[in-house]
Each structure stands twice: as structure tokens, then as C-alpha cells.
Design a protein that fits this description.
The chain is 71% helix and 0% strand. It has six helices and no strands. The longest helix is centred in the N-terminal third of the chain and has 66 residues. The radius of gyration is 35 Å and the shape is rod-shaped. The termini are far apart.
């Protein structure tokens, strides 16, 4: 066997070193771009998630407003709307109540609460008080399982005394 002597010139050594340095730099650059992209996507995902939660809470508030308007409109005349409204006003009143009833039935997912609300509006025997329903809906909307709020503190106008004066309830 012959001894082979490998001779590497300084130019070849410098050229090889430059190529290695360029490759390592390119790999480092691509890795840093990849890391940066992953971080940006992760941060964007968190912002998107928070924005979606915010939008959902806004939608819940809007839906809660519909429930509140429905209850307020429904109890306004205490079942004696025919005494206070002419035919056109009465039809408009019923149309608004129907629209709210339909909207509520389309988006309330909790069957128990929906049935309780509809039982109340149909004045079924043993139906829940409006305050109880608002309390249940409050728990659902605010996602509070053990709500400490006393629902009896919810004020409903007109008071019974004013209702008697307006002949909305019997004296």
C-alpha cells in the first residue's frame, strides 16, 4: 500500500470553511424565522381566542337584553292589555311578543329554562316567578353556579300598589 499524502491548500481550507459558515448561518436563519413564526402564531391564537370569548360574552349580553325586554313588555299590562290598547296597538304588541318568544326559543339551549320561561308566559299552574327565571338566566348567562344574589331584590315596576291604582291587578 502506498501512502497517500493529502495536501489541502489554504485557499481550499478557507473556501470549505466559508461554505460551512454559510450553511450554518442559513440553518440558523431558517430556524430563527421558524421560531418567530411559531411565536407569532401562538400569540395570534391567544388573541383570537380572547376576541372570540369577548364576542361571545357580548352576544350573551344581547340575548339577555332580549329576555329582559320580553319580560318587561309581557308584564307591562299584567294580562289586561285589551283594556289599554286599541286594536292596532294590540296587534303590534302581540307581534312584538311573538317575535321575542320565537327568538328566545331559537337560541336558549337549556331546555329546562326555556320550558320554565314558556310556562310562565302561558301562565301555567305552578310556573316560576319572573324573578326566579331571571335568576336562573343570570346564572346561565354569567356562568355562575352558586350565585349569592338575592333574586327577591329585583325590582319590578309598577309595584303592586300602583298596579291596583291602574287596575292591573284586583284590589
Amino acid at each position: 500500500m502506498e501512502n497517500i499524502i493529502i495536501q489541502i491548500s489554504i485557499q481550499q481550507l478557507i473556501g470549505s470553511s466559508i461554505i460551512v459558515i454559510i450553511l450554518v448561518s442559513l440553518i440558523q436563519f431558517l430556524f430563527s424565522v421558524w421560531i418567530k413564526s411559531r411565536l407569532e402564531k401562538s400569540i395570534q391564537h391567544e388573541y383570537d381566542k380572547k376576541l372570540e370569548e369577548y364576542r361571545f360574552s357580548q352576544l350573551q349580553r344581547q340575548k339577555a337584553e332580549i329576555i329582559a325586554k320580553f319580560f318587561a313588555k309581557w308584564i307591562k299590562f299584567r294580562g289586561k292589555e285589551k283594556q289599554f290598547l286599541d286594536k292596532d296597538e294590540l296587534l303590534k304588541y302581540y307581534e312584538e311578543l311573538n317575535q321575542m318568544s320565537f327568538e328566545i326559543s331559537l337560541w336558549i339551549a337549556d331546555n329546562k329554562i326555556l320550558n320554565d320561561i314558556m310556562d310562565r308566559f302561558q301562565n301555567k299552574e305552578n310556573s316560576k316567578d319572573i324573578r326566579q327565571l331571571i335568576g336562573e338566566f343570570r346564572k346561565l348567562t354569567l356562568n355562575i353556579k352558586d350565585d349569592k344574589f338575592n333574586i327577591q331584590k329585583i325590582t319590578i315596576w309598577p309595584t303592586d300598589d300602583i298596579c291596583k291604582e291602574l287596575e292591573l291587578i284586583d284590589k
